[in-house]
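Exercise 3.2. Students should predict the tertiary structure of the chain below and write it as structure tokens, then compare their answer with the key that follows.

Predict this chain's 3D structure.
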Amino acid sequence: MNKHYSISQLLTYMKCQLHYYFRYIEGVKIPPPSAVTIGIAVHSALEVNFRQKIKSRKDLPIDAVLDAFSDSFESAKKETAWEKDENPAEVKDEGINLICTYHTGKDRNGEPMMYRELNPETRKYEQKPIQPLSPNIMPLFVEEPFEIKFDNDVGYTFLGRMDLVDDQNRIRDTKTSARTPTKDQVDTDLQMTAYALGFRVKTGTTEKGLIMDYLIKNKAPKIMSVETKRTREDIDRLLKILGHIANAVEKGIFFCNCNPIFCGPQNCQYWDMGGGKGCKFGVAG
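Answer key:
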């Protein structure tokens, strides 16, 4: 049985038990798609800026943040599962635009970035300037680790890292996305529940807020911040899910979810790994 679990492990098991088995039991890593590579590189660049901002109290110049993004992207590029029609340089440019959107609201030439928003009264789209997030965020913790131990000696702990806690004790997470999220998606996001649990155990207090900052990868990028909250019932639900998954893993329960969204030879990189292994065969072993 695993000695610890993370929110990534729980979400993987919930997505597909066989994915969990191949990734965390057998240790088979698969190249990520470009969307994951961009997300990692953007996250890395923002982390570089916010870590130094704890002491300096000011943002790095945009060129320094873009350099951090470029270093991370180039490092991950060779390990990425690129689609046949994808151009890595164009994908990198998308990431650069997202960094500029978040950090300054201006493009690489220093020109204000604009996005289209529907006016509910006129039912027409209007051009509006991007309002950058970075200048308005003063970090308190960046990538702060937490570990949850249990009194009933269940044989495992729950580990995680809070991406960012600001000086108002609000937990923030930044996501890159091709689509605008719904409020329901944010309100039920288990990762945010895990962050709330970690904050409360680590600090002995309740967070002042939970905010999901989305960088939307439209033709003209935009920022969307969605606030949410977590109750004691939400925390209890997460802990029950953790207990059930840990019990299932201990018993060796691993089978293919057969979800048509990501299951099949075209969508699943674990589908047929050779030697009689893969989701193609339905179960582990």
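Discussion points: The mean pLDDT is 93. The CA atoms of residues 175 and 214 lie 5 Å apart.
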